[in-house]
Write a structure and sequence with these properties.
Length: 150
């Protein structure tokens, strides 16, 4: 398996693209596509790799696999949970939902381990908030579990 001159040129372009994404970061559009529609993104990426193999750009195909692994890792690990990620956008939309209690600051309380009960996401005047199940459960919580919450 020898690399042709066109294969080496294409590989240099893919390496430059990898360096660009490592220095500047992967564009948000690509990361959103990888998080929101992973099956479509994988099919597209595999078709590009198969086309590179069909054109006998073997070295380029190897570098495309590496670039795809890096982009997928970026999207699934750091970007999905960052303040720019798609989950942050969903949380921002959720705050405008009338069922969401914006005054409870659930995430902050969970981070500080001060959340004592699970606040209702919707207004239900018939039930009080359910206490969180601690691990290991206290004897009082075990009795509540055994008695169906009573």
């Amino acid at each position: 398996m020898l690399a042709t001159s066109k294969d080496i040129q294409a590989s240099v372009v893919v390496i430059a693209l990898y360096a660009f994404t490592a220095i500047v970061g992967t564009p948000h559009v690509v990361l959103d596509a990888l998080v929101a529609q992973p099956m479509f993104a994988r099919i597209l990426w595999l078709s590009v790799i198969v086309y590179a193999l069909y054109c006998k750009f073997y070295l380029t195909a190897v570098f495309l696999v590496v670039l795809g692994i890096r982009a997928t890792f970026d999207a699934d690990m750091s970007y999905a949970f960052s303040h720019d990620g798609i989950l942050a956008k969903y949380a921002a939309l959720q705050k405008n939902d009338p069922r969401f209690d914006a005054s409870s600051e659930i995430d902050l309380k969970m981070a500080n381990e001060t959340l004592a009960y699970d606040p209702a996401r919707w207004l239900d005047p018939g039930r009080s908030p359910i206490p969180l199940l601690l691990f290991p459960p206290t004897p009082e919580q075990l009795s509540l579990i055994g008695n169906n919450g009573k």
